[in-house]
Queue: 3 jobs
Job 1
Amino acid sequence: MYSKEVMDHFMNPRNVGEMPDADGVGSEGNPVCGDMMKLFIKVKDNRIVEAKFQTFGCGAAIAVSSMITEMIKGKTLEEAMSISKEQVASALGGLPPQKMHCSNLGADALRKAIDDYRQKQGKGEETSPLP
Amino acid sequence: MECYFDHVATTPLRPEVLDAMMPYFREEFGNPLSIYPLGTKAREAVENAREQVAGLINAKNTEIIFTSNGAEANNFALRGIAFARQHEGKHIIVTRMEHHSILNSARFLEKMGFTATYLPPDKYGLIDPEAVRKAIIDETIVISVIHASPEVGTIEPISEIASIARERNITLHTDAVASIGNIPVDVKELGVDLLSMSAHQFNGPKGAGALYLREGQRIIPLIFGGIQEGGRRAGTENVPAIAGMGRAAEISKAELPMRVENIRQLRDRLIKGIMKLEDVHFTGHPERRLPGHASFCVEYIEGEGMLLMLAAKGIYVASGSACTSKALKSSPVLLSMGVPTHVAHGSVVFTLGADNTEEQIEYALEEFPQIIKRLRELSPFSKGWGEIEEGGTCIPKK
């Protein structure tokens, strides 16, 4: 059902865990619906220098979380913000149609983490719409 | 090590069953309706299988109608009786423990002008016969109660419910797909009018099922056409699969009493080992359950993750988790038993069969705790669900 990339990120997830000194935290989902993702970022000079995640969810949700933390490292906040759910799914070699909502959760959690960072910086920008 | 603990999904085909099927793929390829010898041999194979399947459940040969699977038997039973008796009333009773083939047939009947009552189970997945009695109205014509749940293993009090149904002249159907091959099933003892079964659940082939229809019961066919199965189920019979089902039924009848105790002991060992783990809940009835069935909800993680990680270790299990199904809905069975939705996502089901060994149980008990630990390390809820807000959102504990 899953691609090699999904299984690799599920079995060997990158950047797992809490980040107590995170500059921005974003949570998306609801465990009652079956998935919840928490994304932590550390930002330096407008670039994401570190990212971590915690996820309650299926194999796809965990793989998406792992992949998105890899994709955003080193990117500017604007570049990270422009990552779409399709790009995450594509980097994972595709997701089954019924699992595409998992990649949505990843992109949404990222946006919330960036928003949180900006709020903390006093910039308070509104979440940009999903690309 | 490979451990197949998903006998609720399907069971391995026995070599003797395959041997019984092979001639009907090859030289004995006749159509059972043909009157020349090639057809006669195929007809004999079907009738021999009918006798073997009838023998497994203490029925008469004439009371067995072959279908293509258990889901077809369930559809046929509920819809066939409802339409046959609709002039007497248009109310049906089913339970929330049923397979989709019953629940969706009930919903279809509602669209056709019937009314349906969906009875909830208790926290162990048991249906109270008195609740069935209370749900009966003058218009009730058919009741369907699953014999044993494939999700939580609970065995329902069918004979008590049958007495109630008989008092009110209501037809009783039971879906015995999960129980046949795991516990002795006798239609006379159960007192049912109809019973569904599926060959691949008791070491037979996929593509063969049967419906027991008590003599004298009228039913409207699901498939119209020719005169096969006494005009009650049209279509050329799947002769090899039916021959295989018959042989599997014969083997099951002979071997079941010997293997039940061994399977039960292995299951109890598995349950004891898994229940030592923290925040793991046993689901289903502690005693009234299938001998090879062990089902749990593991908190803070999702079932599909467990299933995939166990599979990577060669351990094959099932889960009622939403994410293992395309419907993405939590198990209606677990929810109807009162399991909270977020906990139901952590469902994991081990179903044992005749080929499982002590070594496999030990291996599973060695690997499973590590998998739970690993997945909990990934979860924001590893320290607990915390508060649950209105609408069901959990706030992870700090």
Job 2
Amino acid sequence: MNFDFSDDQKMLKDQARKFLSEKCTTKTVRAVFEGDAHHDAALWKQVAEMGWTGTAIPEEFGGLGLGYLELCVIAEELGRALAPVPFSSTVYLFAEALLIAGTDEQKKRLLPKVASGEIVGTFARAEGPGAVLPKNIRATLKGGKLNGKKIAVIDGPIADYAVVLAQTSEGSGERGLQLALVDLKGAGVKRKTCETLDASRGHSDIVFENASAEPLGKIGEGWSDASRVLDRAAILLAFEQVGGADVCLAQAKDYALGRYAFGRPIASFQAIKHKLADMYVNNELARSNAYYGAWALSTGARELPLAAAAARVSATQAFDYASKENIQTHGGIGFTWAMDCHFYYKRAKETGLVLGPQRAWKDKLVTELETSNA
Amino acid sequence: MDFEDSPEEAAFRTEVRAWLDANAKKRAGKREISAEDMENGAEGEMVASKAWQKTKAKAGYARITWPKGMGGIGGTPMQSIIFGQEESKYDVASGAPFAIGLGMCIPTLMAYGDEAAKKRFVWPAVQGDEIWCQLFSEPAGGSDVANLRTKAEKDGDTWTINGSKIWTTGAQFSDYGIILTRTDPGVPKHKGLTMFYIDMKDPGVDIRPIKQASGGAGFNEIFFTDVKVKDSQRLGEVGQGWTVALTTLMHERLAVGGGAGGGLDVPQLMQLARELELEDGPAIRNAAVREKIADWYVRSAGLRYTTFRTMTALSQGKQPGPEASIAKIVVATKLQDLSAFAMELEGEAGVLQGAAAPMHGLFQGGWLSAPGLRIAGGTDEILRNIIAERVLGLPGDIRVDKDVPFNKIPTGR
């Protein structure tokens, strides 16, 4: 039994934390929030130079070929720092879609550019509010042309490429679905930057009008390919969420120890102590579920979809709770723009919705349980 | 990161399997859990439990981490966990009757008793011949354990104990107990305590089982009238009883936290949800039901993998952290909520109990035992305090009676 990261992986984590504590301070996050840019380009460049974007990409495609456990420890630190970089869209979603469904040629063409940080990639599924279901996908891929509209595409304003879930009309519903690879700088792509909750992440609505696109994977496998991409991204993002949740607990704790009311530190009131204890319990459970996800991801275990759903639900709940109760612990000052609490509150919601809501993941989790019990 | 045994662990597992094959029967299929199993101390199990305990003790598997000659094999915590994992696959009697004695009392005796006491008591307890209970709680105490009034007064070489204890698990089956008494009421409450071990069959010890809300009687109230105890039965120095008690309580949280919940969890809820029909079709297809299942699953799974992290730390020679406190909070509240939800699904049949109820009253049993589980071995509130204070380093609660002599503390009711 060894349910922990190795010493080398822990060292990588320490290095990542050290790097980010210097290069990605609250000021960095605040600047992106308050400015017009949708990410910190200098930080993104440095992150790529460190090789983080190529962590789990095999060497033959220009990556470091380290593995997913290494990517997990980096993810946790990016989450702690609220790093305003298009890492999750490019690395967890776009690169994984290529690795899962791409041809050798497609991988050779694009993955080295992901690894080197030359391109930002994203992944587009939803077309409107509510559930994303095979029958709701109206975007079409026919004869190398993509038509339709996708909403709230993560890092849409800065992305160079997108993987898009589309209908080929060869067979209805799930049987006709396929992933499409699109150059967002090509003709027939119109992007509209949306106002978003978490301004350190730009989101766009994207309209495709006869945009040139190539198939990624096979017809009829678009839905399952997308699910596999989401599973992997859910585990990696769970580490970001756990990192963020831990910071919320630390902020709440520090504030409660230093803030006096009624003649004592508010950290000595049971109402506050119990709230923080609950945060700790949630965070530990989420961390353990994320670890299991990391194991499943790194070994390609059969349990991966279940582990992904559990990691996703647990981490989303923990980050939600920690970020909202962090503000509550701070009292009025916690709700001001001047404090950092709200950045975490917003990131918690952004990360909790970007791969689909908890409700959908819970349903998936139970479906997986039903299958595994059968 | 993997779940594989190290070569040493694998070798031990093989050895344990061979021994279990030779001494017990494999469990056929899934284990049926009855409502009665949810209660502690079912008398019918006692004979079988004692026999299995003796078999394990002879092989050194009853207390694996204890030294040879004390009933163990000087094994690692990891080996103990491996044995537990393998043992759970066999149809063997529960070790519950010995949990308090071996988990808390005997370790305290081993730490503070003299050589004669260790020689006399450790082995009979390990092989299940003698059962121990822990006599700490009192009616006025509750979570404030040190607020106890049972007094011990010394006359020559003999102490006389008068007073009463309550919530004592398994006292009616016990041969011996460790008891925390007040020996000096004129000093602050934590400073005037002294620990002893006593013979539960001595004259003056009156044990009265307490009928619980669940109908069972795992706990007892005990009255002590002029019970005589020799000074050699003292554990630790006079006035140092609190320090001794902390040793016991540390062991208690480790013991109570682990397997609590009686195995009632998400799989049983899913089984019920598959069998039942709701207003809009099968319960398992209902969105609200599915959300609840997922919520409880992530808590169960989180706890399971937290245990894996603990096991990893143990196997690397580290001390266990506060996981036991987390476990009991999570398990007890989950048991209560999950059971109540299941009964809600059962509809009007939810009021039934035992064999008449769906799944033989499994959820009703869980629901009835859950309030006790949330209190025994440290309330949810106390456990949250422990996490807040010992893990997060937040300040301790204000204790207005801390420096006041015990006999000057206001008592209320």
Job 3
Amino acid sequence: MNRRSFLKYQAAGMLWTIGAPFMLPGRLFAREKTDVAVVKGEVQAAVRKSVEMLGGISKFVKKGDRVVIKPNMSFAVSPEQASNTHPLVAKTIAAMCKEAGAARVLVLDNPLAPAEQCLEASGIFAACESLEKDMVHMVSRPGSFKEVGIPNGRTLKTTDVMKEVLSADVLIAAPVAKSHSGAGVSLSMKGMMGLIRDRSTMHRRGLHETIVDLVSLLTPQLVIIDATRVLTTGGPGGPGKVIEPKTIIAATDMVAADAYAVSAFEWYGRTYAPSQIKHIRLAHERGLGRMDIENLNVRKISV
Amino acid sequence: MSFRRAAQLIFLIIFLALLARAGHIKEADLFLRMDPALVGITAIAARMWTWLFLPALIVVLSALLFGRVFCGYICPMGTTLDFSDKCIPRPTGKTERSPQRLSPRLNRYILVFLVGAGLAGVSLVSWASPLALITRFYGLVVYPVTELIADQSLVFLYPLASWLDIRSLMFAEIHPSRFTAQFFVLVLFILIFAAGWITPRFWCRYLCPAGGILAVAAGKPLLRRRVSDECNGCGICAQKCPMGAIDRLHPERTNHSACISCRTCEANCPQEAIEFSLLARPGSHMARETGVSTSRRYFLMAGAAGMGTAALSLTGLHAVSGKETEGWVQPARLIRPPGAIPEPMFRAACVRCGECMRACPTNTLQPIWFAAGFLGMFSPAITPDRKYCDPRCTICGEVCPTGAIRTLSAGERVWARTGTAVIYRQKCLAWEHQKSCMVCDEVCPYNAIEFEKIADLPYPVPHVKEDRCAGCGYCEHYCPVTNEAAIVVTPMNALRLQAGSYREAGQIRKFNLSLRPPTEGLQPKPYPGVSGGEIESPEGEAENGSEELAPGFDRGY
């Protein structure tokens, strides 16, 4: 980058920062409501605290609800490789949902690698099995999906979604934070691709655009990003550089959660603005969420 | 139910269970290795002997002692044919429309024909071995249909299962296997079943080469049919005999080579003059045997015909024998299973039973038709379009009855390279269509895909690191480019070893194969253009000190 574009960039940033309060509904000042909760500390405590900061799990999960939790668990590698969600993150979220009186809690994904290997290597199956039997499942046979329209889709107008997800009351995204060679990063929005059958068409039509179409249909009510370890290079499958921020990021707005995660960690050895991930930028522009985290109430604590 | 029917049923159930659980159960190929024709011809054609072949020896030994009990009590082909014969309506009292012109020695001529071809190094056993055929029939025709029905039932039951919250039923996945060539197998079997209309067990009597071997061994077994003086020559036994082993005019005479000790005659004799025993009844003089001598002329002719057929098939364009020779024409994309021995040997040792295809958990192993010529017919090939070949899986080698696919340890399996992926840049979404796609990198279990930033292209583009690729087909299978992927596996650099370590052979060739996570201290390469420095406070805004963007990122606002 040369000096000119650097200055341009700076100027643009300034303008946006100054203009934001006039253009956006957000406020510059801290409010009661936490938009993005960032908690550093031991995994289970951090997960619980982050949800608490957003108003507690009972705000999202009502008695008798069916909940689907969507972690990353489609790589047959161990937790420290940071390609999959930390088993304790998945387990803690599931436990909280049970405590809130959920009638059915399922942890689902549609992997590319052999299902048993992913379940075993990721540690998620074992972790959740200790909580309740038969909670974690890999779903990949065509008969388990149902074609649905995407009313707000622009390039992706229909897709096949897991029946269990369609009949669920609550969808919770629990992705691990990692780099992604195609999508830049793989966070809550990219993770929704694990709930549908045909992903290849998304690459043909344009990955970033179709991710935005997809999340206009599959919008999680609660996003809990596992940044206990972050795969900052070589994602999604690794091997790559793994850092350990020991952080959990929670939000009700998937765009805000992803935007914060982009800005908070290094990617390939440097920092980036959320707008440099096209699907975050497009989702923001289409009003699916907000990436202007500087205007949101981001609360960081340690436990 | 008679003892024989019960035995047949039990052995058939064991056979079907082993086939259904192949890959999850030890000795899944046991029945195949009991087939003396399959084992004998393979041993001759491939010039090999392994202790895997022991069960067939035991079967031959059993024929020496007790006659063709294998055919009568154990063979799943025989049991299946007994059942199909039952379904064919017959005029009462008449058991056969006797095929007068067929020699009861035909199965031995077929056997000699196969031995002749085998001596020339060509295995045609897949066309005639009963166990290879019946395994293929159940494995490639019956099971896939069963699976399809079961899978559809699960889909049908899903709403009920979900309502009752029976998770095991809700999420049970069967993934019905699909095969090419299933109609060919079906037609063959319809012909075999239909031949039962001519005479019961037509296949066993006239065509089965394993029966041929056992017929020779059972010329005069210890335990055999014996007729006492009570016999009044009524001939009912001869009428009832499913194998035509009893002389119509002299029912006291038995052709033990044809007798399968089913004891139908014993059960039907109004005089109770027949028994199967080690010794004749004292004072009985009627027990006589009629042997079948094999005509030397036809014997030699059959052997010569086999050799001739082998010679002719070796002149096929795709034929391969001895060493890979100049101008060896191979299908461009014929990927053999991991651990498949060198092609000439492989074709001689593979009996095309379909056990590996049936057991393959990803269903990528498919029988090939004519792509590899007549001698390659029905042999297994990896079909990435259908699914990848899992580098952690060693099942096909474990279930192979002849060792045409070697049994590999997990450590060796990773090095059993099946080919190399190549990228068609003009089809690739990233290279040609300038889209953000790195699916091949995402799915590669060997981490053999590297991406690179090219000046004129907005998104990173893939490269295959040839030394890290094992040809598993993950990339080809998941490539979003349809019908023919933009990245395909070719057989180049496949490791085909008769013996020895794949790891050593691979390392000699400078291969660098390991699954992710890296097993041998592989350091991830820093992304080109990145200094790789630690970031102290990653909370400022982007410092755009470099033109290089991480893969998938763009300039933003």
